[in-house]
Design brief:
alpha/beta; Rossmann fold; OB fold (Dihydrolipoamide Acetyltransferase, E2P); 2 domains; five-stranded parallel sheet; five-stranded antiparallel sheet; elongated
């Protein structure tokens, strides 16, 4: 698209107002962002909502919004898979990620020139992100940038994860984590430097997050362990592990042989 055409497109959108869609599996997060947009971003005149990626794809194809607010961690499909379900002709929007990823990932967003909002969202951040997106609409660079970002996220170079706590987000070194333990709909994170941290996310959340981290392993439905912090393997009494902090971790019967193979490779 020529420069003059992009300018004309931006002026046309600006005069009519921009349409946006919020794709996030958390209803409260969608409602909060919608309210923020309605109160602080007058150029955004219509806001659609989708609770998963596939519903969002349908709305994007049908309504052709100019701004897409996209969560990364969602059931079934990650937000980074968006390109898998859209044709190149559908890519007429700008993406603003809503995320709780680590500071390393934030650098990746900045490098890829795709904006992001770090949860919990703040009105001023939303305003600035919308203004940036509006200036970029029509440049047709989304395909290359999303491919670049997907590649960065598949690289195992990130050494921290973001742990949502009561007063914000704590960035924890992966090597500092001894293990995760299920506690109902919460997870206890045992660390070397900070002791025990209670996180309001189920263990399944961390199981998905650690799938590409080979040194994290789930020997039991209630635990995910850092293999680097195993202190001792006990064969008797059903077999269990002792971690560096003295915790005992059960091993399910179906995981025992596989775990021993992992230990042999350490």
């Amino acid at each position: 698209m020529k420069t003059i055409d992009r300018l004309s497109l931006f002026i046309e959108y600006k005069s009519m107002g921009f349409n946006a869609i919020v794709i996030d599996d958390e209803k409260k997060a969608r409602q909060l962002l919608r309210t923020t947009l309605e109160e602080y971003c007058p150029t955004v005149t219509t806001v659609y909502e989708a609770e998963d990626l596939m519903s969002g794809v349908e709305i994007i194809k049908r309504e052709r919004p100019q701004i897409v607010f996209l969560d990364i961690e969602m059931p079934e499909h990650s937000g980074l898979q968006l390109l898998d379900f859209l044709d190149k002709d559908d890519l007429t929007f700008e993406i603003i990620f809503t995320t709780a990823y680590s500071e390393y990932a934030i650098e990746a967003f900045q490098f890829s020139a795709i904006d992001y909002l770090l949860k919990p969202l703040r009105p001023k951040q939303v305003q600035l992100a919308v203004e940036k997106a509006e200036k970029s609409i029509g440049r047709n660079q989304i395909h290359n940038r999303l491919n670049e970002l997907s590649h960065i996220f598949k690289n195992n170079s990130f050494h921290k994860i973001a742990l949502p706590i009561s007063d914000g987000i704590f960035f924890m070194e992966l090597d500092d984590i001894i293990c995760f333990q299920a506690d109902g709909m919460y997870t206890k994170v045992y660390t070397v430097s900070k002791g025990e941290i209670l996180i309001s996310k189920p263990l399944k959340h961390f199981d998905t997050m650690m799938q590409d981290r080979p040194h994290f392993y789930r020997p039991h439905r209630s635990f995910i362990i850092n293999m680097g912090h195993i202190k001792q393997y006990i064969k008797k009494e059903g077999s269990y592990l002792i971690m560096d902090n003295g915790m005992t971790v059960s091993i399910s019967k179906e995981r025992k042989e596989e775990l021993l193979q992992f230990i042999d490779q350490i």
